[in-house]
Design a protein that fits this description.
The protein has about 80 residues and is mostly helical. The chain is built from four helices and no strands.
């Protein structure tokens, strides 16, 4: 495989991943608050559930529950 072919394949992969990321953000934006913010902070901003819980003054276990609800809502939109 030549360098030009490798570069082309890499660029195609980058474009595909960028499109996937855009679809995920669009899907997250369809979810109501506070679930939208939870998913955005965890999966887009890369914060831990502990950090998000602390920022929102939630108990960690309560944040785990809210996160689970948010994931179900996200999954329902994907069907």
């Amino acid at each position: 495989m030549e360098l030009e072919d490798c570069f082309s394949e890499l660029m195609n992969n980058v474009i595909e991943e960028k499109n996937n990321q855009k679809k995920i953000v669009e899907q997250v934006n369809k979810i109501e608050q506070p679930f939208k913010n939870i998913l955005f902070e965890v999966y887009i901003q890369g914060k831990s559930l502990v950090k998000v819980a602390s920022d929102k003054d939630y108990d960690y276990k309560h944040m785990c529950y809210k996160h689970g609800v948010a994931l179900k809502k996200f999954d329902e939109l994907d069907k």
